[in-house]
Amino acid sequence: MVGSCKTCDICQQDLENYCPKVIFTYNSRDQDGTKTYGGYSDIIVVDQRFVLHIPDNLSSEACAPLLCAGITVYSPMKYYGMTEPGKHLGVAGLGGLGHVAVKFGKAFGLKVTVISTSPKKESEAINKLGADSFLVSTDPAKLKESKN
């Protein structure tokens, strides 16, 4: 995002990504009517509310996942209070967003359960990412058992 109206009720609640006049980084119309070209641009003008300073000691490769998948996962976790230790987080799917959700959940001190259609991902979820439990969503007996 490079801009929003900043005046509607949605923007006033810091939910600019839902603004009816949101200006996306790529393929939107900016306030002056010009088209936005995102990463294909030589230069880009962005409202300061949508800019982050990346410290010199953090590489672009390390930072990029946090700015995309990271905020996609963090924002709803924060909004729904899933940043407080002791809560239980269910992560549906262990793809790019799921990996980040497990890592954030564990960093916040949450109990994390990964829910996947693929039993092959259990080892990765538990042993590599530190999830507390794993459920195969196509196993009705295990799903029923997990409700207790």
Automatic annotation (TrEMBL):
<dbReference type="InterPro" id="IPR047109">
    <property type="entry name" value="CAD-like"/>
</dbReference>
<dbReference type="InterPro" id="IPR011032">
    <property type="entry name" value="GroES-like_sf"/>
</dbReference>
<dbReference type="InterPro" id="IPR036291">
    <property type="entry name" value="NAD(P)-bd_dom_sf"/>
</dbReference>
<protein>
    <submittedName>
        <fullName>Probable cinnamyl alcohol dehydrogenase 9</fullName>
    </submittedName>
</protein>
<keyword id="KW-0560">Oxidoreductase</keyword>
<keyword id="KW-0479">Metal-binding</keyword>
<keyword id="KW-0862">Zinc</keyword>
<dbReference type="GO" id="GO:0046872">
    <property type="term" value="F:metal ion binding"/>
</dbReference>
<dbReference type="GO" id="GO:0016616">
    <property type="term" value="F:oxidoreductase activity, acting on the CH-OH group of donors, NAD or NADP as acceptor"/>
</dbReference>
